[in-house]
């Protein structure tokens, strides 16, 4: 049987630089930073006092009051962004074949804020006061469950947990589900809300976060020599993937096509990437092979680009290994310079950034690129967005545990 | 007085108007609560009124009136 072609027909986004695709695209084009002092809790005693928080998000704009109370913030992001994406895709949910309408969401951590709150309840008031909603609020698959209930989507439903690669793995798996004809439509992407005292403390102890507390807007600086760690972000990036024929039949707007997916493991270390980005290289190579193209056909790479010493160096090496001399010509940027690192949601918002590059011919920049690092000597689209046609864009995500995922999106023709 | 406090807690937990909550209201049939809502609600009431509601008693509390009576008799 012929493999199905898979297109993107809807976008929903809640990010530190804007809610909704228009605000997000504007933020990317203008090179806005979403990083600032943490306002959600008192950072007394923590080495890191900055993060990329989502501001001005009122879950009641999207979700009933009773349901909001039962959802962790990560699920609120996921459901709200899914509603945006379904509306953006002009999906008439009631008219769909519900058994062929699925959900595949990535989240690195799930309901961490809920876990922290309920642990405090147990310590302060005893185990008998732990909420009966604690478990269903906290588990990292509940966002996918809620999305299915919201849209009566009874097809394949799952959650991918591969740390910071989660959303890219989710999009890749959703693409494969449609490609092999197990669903017509998949709601996919990622959601994360882990700007919490415990998470910041944990990542601080790992020395993974930037401590540039006095200059929050300049703290996320992927590929720059003076980078000193990543900035925790939060939010959700949700895409509607659809069988091309299904999309054409209903006259859907098509943003672009998913044409390649590759995923590998480093099998090396719990947190450090494999030397020279071996696993990352193999994920990119598999994605290129799946797309049936040459590496030299890729115009733009939305890098994992975390602003950590090792990631940026090894990702650069992996791109060179994949592309040879062409590595010096391909445009690479890390939108984490603006959004911070959304962990398990990163691949969702970054796939949407790739869509902007493809649809509007505007490649988002890597902001805060000031000091050249001899280990990072490629074209990172420094500081200013670039107006240039993009036919193929690749998005990379790599996660603790050694998970690597790459997807390739193509202009729809 | 107990009724008003109970009404307030139910409205808060279930996200509904106090006006919709009467002594006769059944949690599940009339107020749209599920089993988890009821557990959470009874916990909040235990705390509010400083009482203990054992599980075997909780199962018998079907309406708002049942809960108000239970609190009156056990405070």
UniProtKB/TrEMBL annotation, chain A:
It holds the Pfam family ketoacyl-synt. InterPro entries: 3-oxoacyl-ACP_synth-2, Beta-ketoacyl_synthase, Ketoacyl_synth_AS, Ketoacyl_synth_C, Ketoacyl_synth_N, PKS_Beta-ketoAc_synthase_dom, Thiolase-like. GO terms for cellular component: cytosol. Pathway: Lipid metabolism; fatty acid biosynthesis. Its EC number is 2.3.1.179. Residues 3-411 form the Ketosynthase family 3 (KS3) domain. GO terms for molecular function: 3-oxoacyl-[acyl-carrier-protein] synthase activity. The keyword Cytoplasm does not apply. It catalyses: (9Z)-hexadecenoyl-[ACP] + malonyl-[ACP] + H(+) = 3-oxo-(11Z)-octadecenoyl-[ACP] + holo-[ACP] + CO2; a fatty acyl-[ACP] + malonyl-[ACP] + H(+) = a 3-oxoacyl-[ACP] + holo-[ACP] + CO2. GO terms for biological process: fatty acid biosynthetic process. It comes from the Bacteria. The active site is at 164 (for beta-ketoacyl synthase activity). It is an enzyme of class 2 (transferase). Keywords: Acyltransferase, Fatty acid biosynthesis, Fatty acid metabolism, Lipid biosynthesis, Lipid metabolism, Transferase. Involved in the type II fatty acid elongation cycle. Catalyzes the elongation of a wide range of acyl-ACP by the addition of two carbons from malonyl-ACP to an acyl acceptor. Can efficiently catalyze the conversion of palmitoleoyl-ACP (cis-hexadec-9-enoyl-ACP) to cis-vaccenoyl-ACP (cis-octadec-11-enoyl-ACP), an essential step in the thermal regulation of fatty acid composition. Belongs to the thiolase-like superfamily. Beta-ketoacyl-ACP synthases family. PANTHER family: 3-OXOACYL-[ACYL-CARRIER-PROTEIN] SYNTHASE, MITOCHONDRIAL, POLYKETIDE SYNTHASE-RELATED. This is 3-oxoacyl-[acyl-carrier-protein] synthase 2. It comes from Lutispora thermophila DSM 19022.
TrEMBL record, chain B:
The keyword Heme does not apply. It is found in: Cytoplasm. The keyword Phosphoprotein applies. One of its GO terms (biological process) is lipid A biosynthetic process. Its main location: cytoplasm. Residues 1-75 form the Carrier domain. Carrier of the growing fatty acid chain in fatty acid biosynthesis. Belongs to the acyl carrier protein (ACP) family. NCBIfam families: acyl_carrier, PRK00982.1-2, PRK00982.1-3, PRK00982.1-4, PRK00982.1-5. This is Acyl carrier protein. It comes from Lutispora thermophila DSM 19022. The gene is acpP.
């Amino acid at each position: 049987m012929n493999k199905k072609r898979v297109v993107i027909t809807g976008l929903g986004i809640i990010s530190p630089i804007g809610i909704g695709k228009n605000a997000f695209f504007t933020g990317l084009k203008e090179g806005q930073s979403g990083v600032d002092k943490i306002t959600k809790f008192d950072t007394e005693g923590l080495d890191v006092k900055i993060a990329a928080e989502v501001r001005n998000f009122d879950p009641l704009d999207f979700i009933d009051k009773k349901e909001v109370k039962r959802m962790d913030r990560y699920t609120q992001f996921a459901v709200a962004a899914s509603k945006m994406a379904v509306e953006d895709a002009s999906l008439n949910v009631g008219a769909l074949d519900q058994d062929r309408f699925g959900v595949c969401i990535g989240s690195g951590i799930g309901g961490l804020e809920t876990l922290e709150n309920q642990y405090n309840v147990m310590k302060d008031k005893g185990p008998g006061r732990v909420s009966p909603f604690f478990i269903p609020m906290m588990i990292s698959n509940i966002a996918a469950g809620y999305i299915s209930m919201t849209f009566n989507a009874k097809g394949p439903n799952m959650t991918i947990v591969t740390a910071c690669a989660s959303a890219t793995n989710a999009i890749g798996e959703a693409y494969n589900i449609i490609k092999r004809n197990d669903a017509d439509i998949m709601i996919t992407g990622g959601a994360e809300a882990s700007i919490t005292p415990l998470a910041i403390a944990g990542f601080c102890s790992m020395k993974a976060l930037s401590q540039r507390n006095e200059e929050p807007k300049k703290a996320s600086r992927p590929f720059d020599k003076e980078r000193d760690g990543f900035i925790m972000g939060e939010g959700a990036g949700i895409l509607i993937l659809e069988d091309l024929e299904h999309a054409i039949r209903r006259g859907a707007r098509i943003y672009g096509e998913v044409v390649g997916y590759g995923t590998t493991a480093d099998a090396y270390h719990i947190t450090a990437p494999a030397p020279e980005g071996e696993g990352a290289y193999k994920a990119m190579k598999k994605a290129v092979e799946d797309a049936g193209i040459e590496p030299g056909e890729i115009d733009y790479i939305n890098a994992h680009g975390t602003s950590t010493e090792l990631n940026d160096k090894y990702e650069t090496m992996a791109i060179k290994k994949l592309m040879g001399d062409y590595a010096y010509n391909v445009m690479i940027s890390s939108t984490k310079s603006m959004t911070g690192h959304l962990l398990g949601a990163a691949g969702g918002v970054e796939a949407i950034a790739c869509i902007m590059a493809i649809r509007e011919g505007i490649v988002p920049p890597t902001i805060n690129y000031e000091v050249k690092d001899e280990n990072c000597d490629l074209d990172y689209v420094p500081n200013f967005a670039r107006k240039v046609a993009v036919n193929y864009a690749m998005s990379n995500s790599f996660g603790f545990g050694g998970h690597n995922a790459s997807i390739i999106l193509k202009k729809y023709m | 007085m107990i009724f008003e406090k109970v009404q307030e807690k139910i409205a808060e937990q279930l996200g509904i108007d106090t006006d919709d909550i009467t002594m006769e209201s059944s949690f599940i049939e009339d107020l749209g609560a599920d089993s988890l809502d009821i557990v959470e609600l009874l916990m909040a009431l235990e705390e509010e009124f400083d009482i203990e509601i054992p599980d075997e008693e909780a199962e018998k509390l079907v309406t708002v009136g049942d809960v108000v009576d239970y609190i009156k008799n056990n405070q």
